[in-house]
Amino acid sequence: MTDIDLPDGEYTAVVDNVEDDLATVFFERDGEEVGNAVLEASQLPSDGQHADAIVSMVLSGGRIESASYKPEQTESRAAAAQDRFDRLSKRPPSDEES
């Protein structure tokens, strides 16, 4: 099992990707990214073993004490990212169109 180099406490973990039974996970606290780790995918809840999954984690001594998949947060974050993409992909009006 991989030690996670973060202080003890509760974190929001965002699964970046899962490949060859390894998951790259970014950890957030208070909306700010505070670290990352590569974990065995089996350390994540089974329903959270996919890219962009949001998992609430409690760390203690560099180890995962508990982890729970957050489907509602996963969906809302994906919708917000899609909305940002859609807004940014719209071409601004030209001088002739304004």
Would you kindly provide a written description of the structure presented here, covering whatever features stand out?
- The chain has one helix at residues 71-89; strands at residues 9-19, 22-29, 32-40, 54-60, 63-69.
- The chain is of the alpha+beta class and 98 residues long.
- It has a 5-stranded antiparallel beta sheet with strand order 3-2-1-4-5.
- A hairpin with a 2-residue loop joins strand 2 and strand 3.
Radius of gyration: 17 Å
Helices and strands, in order, run as: EEEEEH
Shape: elongated
Supply the helix-strand structural class: alpha+beta
* Beta fraction: 35-45%
- Total helical elements: 1
Q: For the largest sheet, list the strands in their spatial order.
A: 3-2-1-4-5
Q: What is the residue-mean pLDDT, rounded to a whole number?
A: 87
- Percent of residues in helices comes to 10-25%
Instruction: List segments where confidence is low: pLDDT < 50 over at least 5 consecutive residues.
Output: none
End-to-end CA span? 58 Å
Largest sheet: number of strands, sense, barrel closure? 5 strands, antiparallel
User: What is the β-strand count?
Assistant: 5
Q: What tags apply to this protein structure?
A:
five-stranded antiparallel β-sheet, single chain, 98 residues, 19% helix, alpha+beta
What can be said about this structure in brief?
19% of the residues lie in helices and 43% in strands.
Write the layout of secondary structure elements.
Layout: E1 9-19, E2 22-29, E3 32-40, E4 54-60, E5 63-69, H1 71-89
